[in-house]
Amino acid sequence: HPRKSFGFPGGPEMKVAALALAGVVVALLATALQDDVYEAQALVAVQSGAPDERRQPTAVVQAETYAQIVDSDGFLEQTRAQLAGGGLEPGELDERVEARRRPGTALVEITAEGPTRADARGLATDVAGALVFFVQQQARQRATQIEDELRQRLTGADDDERAALQTELARQVSRAVEAATGVVIAARPVEPEDATGKPWARNLLLGLLLGIGAGLVLSLVRLPRRRQAPAPAAADATPPVVRIVEPERG
Question: Residue 97: beta bridge partners?
């Protein structure tokens, strides 16, 4: 019977309305039961190494690059042991950590989330320190690589070429040292006072859409059954044939 399909009274509209209401209720309960989340922010500055305004665009580009590095899975996985005592999986770190370059500056904003004020502050501090260490390590490795390549070229070079290579070696080492020391923590995070607001509106909308979708699916699933139901048999209107069996005729 169409009024008793799937245990919902009424037609498809009632199913959709009932499931939409259920989705809203579930969303409200889930949001209310969510743990508080705190955010802390650290700033990492990329310095040009010299008071030259022409170097500022380079620092901005580097800051953008470093922000993308922090957001990458490879960086978080590589530095996982240094972050929050190594107790977070890469997926958790990816959800809790976000980095971006502050517009118009050569600053990298690192935002970290945690269930407590101390956890948020500690994670932001760890990520900022890991970024600085990563940049310094990469610069040292690059300097060593360049130095080895130039020293190999020095072997067998004449005096003029040797002097040019030594000048280039000194310049490259200087640039590597500048890159290693040009990234510093500009502002250490402080413990946040208040938790971030819970996503009431987002969860309510999601619950409503899921409820409506489930109601529509259930309604559509029932339609083929109604169409395939066998038609009732027509009444037999054939007139009967009557004859006398007993007593015999006459």
Answer: 112
User: Is the Cβ–Cβ distance between 195 and 35 less than 8 Å?
Assistant: no
**CA–CA gap between residue 137 and residue 135 (Å, rounded):** 5
Q: What is the pLDDT of residues 117-155, one digit of tens each?
A: 888 899 999 999 999 999 888 888 887 887 777 777 777
Which residues 6+ apart lie within 8 Å of 140 measured at CB? 176, 180
Encode pLDDT of 73-83 as tens digits. 889 888 989 89
211, two tokens: 């409820």
Residues sharing a CB contact under 8 Å with residue 79, sequence separation 6 or more, in sequence order: 127, 130, 134
| Structure tokens that stand for 94 in this block | 């990816």
Dihedral sign, Cα of residue 155, residue 158, residue 163, residue 164: negative
Q: At 122, which amino acid appears?
A: G
Nearest-angstrom CA–CA distance, 91 and 52: 41
SS3 sequence of the chain? CHHHHHHCCCCHHHHHHHHHHHHHHHHHHHHHHCCCCEEEEEEEEECCCCCCHHHHHHHHHHHHHHHHHHHCHHHHHHCHHHCHHHCCCHHHHHHHEEEEECCCCCEEEEEEEECCHHHHHHHHHHHHHHHHHHHHHHHHHHHHHHHHHHHHHHCCCCHHHHHHHHHHHHHHHHHHHHHHHCEEEEECCCCCCCCCCCCHHHHHHHHHHHHHHHHHHHHHHHHHHHHHCCCCCCCCCCCCCCCCCCCCCC
Distance, CA of 101 to CA of 208 (rounded, Å): 36
